[in-house]
Specification:
A six-stranded parallel beta sheet has the order 3-2-1-4-5-6, sandwiched between helices. α1 links the parallel β1 and β2. The chain is globular and about 50 Å long. By secondary structure, the protein is an alpha/beta fold. The structure holds flavin mononucleotide. The site of flavin mononucleotide has 16 residues, from α2 and α4. Flavin mononucleotide binds next to α2 and α4.
Length: about 180
């Protein structure tokens, strides 16, 4: 399996990092793009650099590298995940304004009818944010907000992170044991 993963500058970089760890453990080929803003947030939230995140990927690209393979639909992938996804990147996807590699790769993923999963993070959500989510959802994009549940009885922060990462993997049918699935008591 070959996936494009993008990490943008929303709070919750930990979700992106944990996803990379899990995909690495599962030996899934990952083409990673980390935005400039994500670099800043990673430094603040995780005390980690872009390089620390890139170590977990198979191939890495600069967000301004408009010659990268994933710029083109001819580069075949099983889909793309943007985690976390800022409202700026969401707006770019919803409007087709593909002025960096993350937006272009998302645009390509949609036009090629491949699976695109975004993990938006913002609160509260404005009508603009909600409209943009509706636009992409109507195109078939999986909108998986960074919204952990509590029915699996989490006992630590890692359990909440793993729940969201597990829901991302569910969109691709990738097996995991990151959270306990609901069973009536
Ligand atoms: C510490 C920090 C946290 C941020 N959190 C969010 C957030 O949760 N959601 C969001 O949409 N933008 C957030 N932003 C703003 C984005 O980083 C900003 O809009 C940036 O231009 C997004 O660029 P990108 O989508 O190319 O990464 C945050 C910025 C900082 C510095």
């Amino acid at each position: 399996m070959r996936l494009i993963v993008a990490i943008t500058g929303a709070s919750g970089i930990v979700y992106g990092k944990r996803l990379l760890e899990v995909l690495d453990e599962k030996k899934i080929e990952v083409h990673l793009i980390v935005s400039k803003a994500a670099e800043k947030v990673a430094k603040h939230e995780l005390k980690q650099t872009k390089k620390d995140l890139e170590k977990l990927a198979t191939h890495t690209y600069d967000e301004h590298d408009l010659n990268a393979p994933c710029m083109s639909g001819s580069f075949q992938t099983d889909g793309m995940i943007i985690v976390p996804c800022t409202m700026k990147t969401l707006a770019g996807i919803a409007s087709g304004y593909a002025d960096n590699l993350i937006l272009r790769a998302a645009d390509v993923t949609i036009k090629e009818h491949r699976r695109l999963v975004i993990v938006p993070r913002e609160t509260p959500l404005s009508v603009i944010h909600l409209r943009n989510m509706l636009i992409v959802a109507e195109l078939g994009v999986f909108v998986v907000p960074a919204m952990p549940a509590y029915y699996h009885n989490p006992t630590k922060l890692d359990d909440l992170v793993d729940f969201v990462v597990g829901k991302i993997l569910d969109c691709f049918g990738i097996e995991h044991k990151l959270y306990r699935r609901w069973k009536s008591p």
